[in-house]
Amino acid sequence: MELVYLWIESYKNIKKQGFNFSPRFRCEYNEDTNELTIDENKDYVSIFPENINITAIVGENGSGKSNLLHLIIGSIFQNVDNWRNIEGLFFLFKHSNNYILSKEIKCNLPQSKFNYEYKDFQNIKEYVYISLFDFSLIQPEIWNNWDEYKKYYSLEPSVDYRGNGPNGASKIIPISFNANMSSLACYFYRYIEKQILIDNKIDIYDEIAIRKARKVNIDFLKTEKDIILDAYKNNDVLLGLTKTEFKTKRALSQYVILRIDDLRDDEIELIGYFDLFFEIEIRSSSNEDLNYKSLSLGHKMLISNFGLILKTVLKRAKEKSVIFLLDEIETSMHPNWQKNIIYLFTKIFKNYSSTYFNFIFASHSPFLLSDLQKQDCIFLSKNEKDKNDLEKKQTFGANIHTLLSDAFFMADGLQGKYSELIINELIGYLNEGKKTEKINSNEDAQKYINIMGEPILKRQLQKMLDSRRLSKIDEIDLLRRRIEELENKQK
User: What is the model's pTM?
Assistant: First the structure.
């Protein structure tokens, strides 16, 4: 099941806009006639596996990228009072040869063989699994209908939700961020193909080691202890430890070493909790120098983020169409890792051929756009003309600098604000002789030109300074000639 189109009359800063999510179709809604026209994109080129569709939402700050993701998830999980003030919203999905609409409107279909039917938002969940992965530093407010969403759909990194009554939920982090990332890393290494790791130069870790008990009173962590003890009701041994060994927190005489491929899913789920009581190390059996704990945060985030998504597919969405909304997945990642994100999504999830994936990114990364066609991108801008101009440009394989300038509407250029100030002071001095605290002589100007990193700008500024110096020499020569003329007259 594929998300094709969305129309919203009003939600926060998004007013009377339609959004195309499928590159195979172009849709346009006429409010006056309550009519939706669906045209096939004859120029469509398929670049992704058949079971994957990827859309990126990009634009300047405050243009509504995250709001659009929140609109999608919030419309599915909200109460009848419409507390999010969503007005005039409808979706269009494509399921086999049928279109599914969430509102009764007239449709102009591209081919007569297609039919359409109406389903309300709640019935849509029968066909598709939808979840928001919010990797941004600031989490959104909790959705209404929280019990259903938090129990079956919510999977933000290292965050758990526990209800505190019928009208709300408390957002708690019961285990440490690093411990939870270790658990997700085990999901990643347990289910990903090893060749994908080799192709992307991702270190391979294939075992965990448990040895030293942490200096913590087990009774101080009653909730976490009870979660583990409850798991022992159906298991004599968890992560190589008996129930007695866990309760007594006995220091182990030697490492308990377990292969990640041999771990059960319920054991991987408990790694973050066990990490509160025992030191757990992710290791490589073939290279003792590899140390998971010493990896950069961005490297760990790449591994754990994909581990989280794999966990979702395996536990909740296998054999079902999915819509995954991913907000700022590139957070904390080095550009080298950002370059690999789209490639990894296509390589990992093409193997789950029975599931159709709709991946929708809200991102600030030009590297994601470079792997997408312009039909795969939704451009948001506060200026309608800028958005329309950008929609005419190609993005696939485009230069990163061009994408930064265009797709993220950086009209003021790509230089830092401070260097831009120095450059303007240089130009003012070289053109008009304006002196500043930093630049009040040719020697000062030369020092700043010497450290310029952009070669074309550096050459131009050097020409301007050389010209100024020549003008100074000409002025000195003129004064010398006038002095000579005055001396000759006196003779």
Answer: 0.76
